[in-house]
Amino acid sequence: MNQIQNTSPDYTMELHNNNFYTFIMDFRGGTYTSQVHAESLHSSLKGWVENLRHNMNEIEHLGAKTIQEIEEQVLPFPIDEDPTLLKGLKNVWFFNVTTKKGSGHVLIVKTEKD
User: Fold this and answer.
1) Distance from CA of residue 91 to its chain's centroid?
2) Residues 2-22: pLDDT tens digits?
């Protein structure tokens, strides 16, 4: 059974004219969510890694070394290695991360700001 945990910090990275990017990560039996405001998919990845770091004590099996491994895989994403846009869907991407502690699947959903 998966554990659902909101890993968003009390603050958000609020920038003008940005969109919400919601990250849903399945990692070692747990499902962890967070949201960031960002100008682009690429900049949202940085905010997501910062959220992981901020909340690492609340996320089982995710310590500083594991977050560093994830960061090395997603930052910077070369332009030709973007997360995969899911076929038939708009503003939904997927990517995998692999660490010494295990692998994870990450969905990103972009929601335009009102």
Assistant:
1) 14
2) 334 444 443 344 445 689 999
